[in-house]
Design goal:
It is built from 15 helices and 14 strands. By secondary structure, the protein is of the alpha/beta class. It folds into 2 domains: 132 residues, Aspartate Aminotransferase, domain 1 (Alpha-Beta Complex); 232 residues, Aspartate Aminotransferase, domain 2, CATH 3.40.640.
């Protein structure tokens, strides 16, 4: 039988998915907001379709992607180690830069130790799947990042959920679990779509009551939240470090990669039993060096942390005054609630045409019918850029029926 023929009655995989034409239809209508090539990325501005725009769709919160110290560190590591270690961390992929970065991360977060993964996504997959065996259970905030859902799915143990940012519901969920099961509560410190913060003190109290550990994904909080950008814990003035902290280098730290920080014994266990650690190539040393340099810049240039926090508050008020629904954001991530997906795409296109780049977010990243435009702000945005952006938001919002 020809390799492309099939027996009668057996479903053909490609036929089953050939009905998906929504992306092509959106492209034809000029309303496809994804995979947009960024031709030049200068930080607060970018060039898209040959036109310079104000960049309000980046996670480069402190504006470090073009910082000279970060660029030099990456260049030096590239010259020393080349573009890749061509092996896993377990075997030949660990460089001195990886170890130095792990030590600096632990010190930055007040943790005993840390381990570096190739991406933040893999950090969640690696930590959770290693720790939750068939005798354990993960308990997720409903709004956690997709990588946490995938991590819970990869783990051998089951998972359940509690209502977003609801300590009372978490208390009830934990009360109903088998007392013989080891539990790990999984939350975001700062939520990537809504920009809101987890009520960490109350969640900690519930976890202690039930002898339950908690993992905090602080990917969007590091560098943006807390007096010195140390994350959600410091925002609430909590002295004791999180049980486990997950983070990424692809946002504030201007690179790519991720980490898990926590007690030495736990991190050592993850180091030796995490499949995403053992069976994938190590983070390139140049990426590790860039993240390490960015971490140092945060301490040396704390004005960046203060500036991005001030800009977040200013834009939150400015957008709200225009009539936009900006939800409960408490970070430099500010969503604009639109609802209808077609209207969201049209609003996105109008903004881009007039010089503002944002992120259109639709299901499954948010619930169906609750589409948003996600905006985010950079410490190096100028006052003039943001005043101009607010003007464009108002005009485009009225044209597209998002505001009156």
């Amino acid at each position: 039988m020809d390799g492309h023929q099939r027996e009668v009655g057996s479903p053909d995989l490609f036929e089953r998915i050939s009905h998906f034409q929504l992306a092509d239809q959106a492209r034809a209508a000029g309303l496809y907001p994804f995979f947009q090539p960024i031709e030049v990325n200068d930080g607060p501005e970018a060039i898209v379709d040959g036109k310079r725009v104000i960049m309000l769709g980046s996670n480069n919160y402190l504006g470090l992607t073009r910082h000279p110290d970060v660029l030099k560190a990456a260049h030096d590591a590239l010259d020393r180690f080349g573009p890749s270690m061509t092996g896993s961390r377990l075997l030949n992929g660990t460089s001195p830069v990886h170890l130095e970065l792990e030590e600096a991360l632990a010190d930055f977060l007040g943790a005993e130790t840390a381990i570096v993964f190739s991406t933040g996504y893999l950090a969640n997959l690696g930590a959770v799947s290693a720790l939750i065996d068939r005798h354990g259970i993960s308990v997720l905030d409903r709004d956690v990042h997709a990588s946490i859902y995938d991590a819970a799915g990869l783990a051998l143990g089951k998972y359940t959920r509690f209502q977003h940012n609801d300590p009372a519901h978490l208390d009830r969920v934990l009360s109903n679990l088998n007392p013989d099961q080891a539990r790990l509560v999984l939350i975001d410190g700062a939520y990537s779509m809504g920009g809101d913060l987890a009520p960490l003190p109350e969640l900690r109290e519930v976890c202690r009551k039930h002898r339950t550990r908690m993992l905090v994904d602080d990917a969007h909080a590091i560098g943006t939240v807390g007096p010195k950008g140390r994350g959600t814990r410091t925002h609430f003035g909590l002295e004791e470090p999180d049980d486990l902290t997950i983070g990424t280098f692809s946002k504030t730290l201007a690179s790519v990669g991720g980490f898990c920080a926590g007690p030495h014994a736990v991190i050592e266990y993850v180091r030796h039993f995490s499949r995403p650690m053992l069976f994938t190539a190590a983070l390139p040393p140049a990426s590790a060096a860039a993240a390490l340099a960015a971490l140092r810049v945060i301490d040396d240039e704390l004005w960046r942390v203060k500036r991005v926090q001030e800009l977040g508050e200013r834009m939150r008020l400015g957008l709200s005054d225009l009539g936009f629904d900006v939800a409960n954001s408490a970070t430099p991530i500010i969503p604009i609630r639109v609802g209808d997906e077609v209207r969201t795409a049209a609003f996105w296109r109008d903004l881009l045409t007039n010089g503002v780049y944002t992120n259109a977010v639709i299901a499954p990243a948010v619930p169906r019918g609750q589409a948003i435009l996600r905006t985010s702000y950079i410490a190096t945005h100028t006052d003039e850029q943001l005043e101009r952006a607010l003007q464009i938001f108002g005009e485009a919002g009225r044209r597209n029926g998002v505001i009156d």
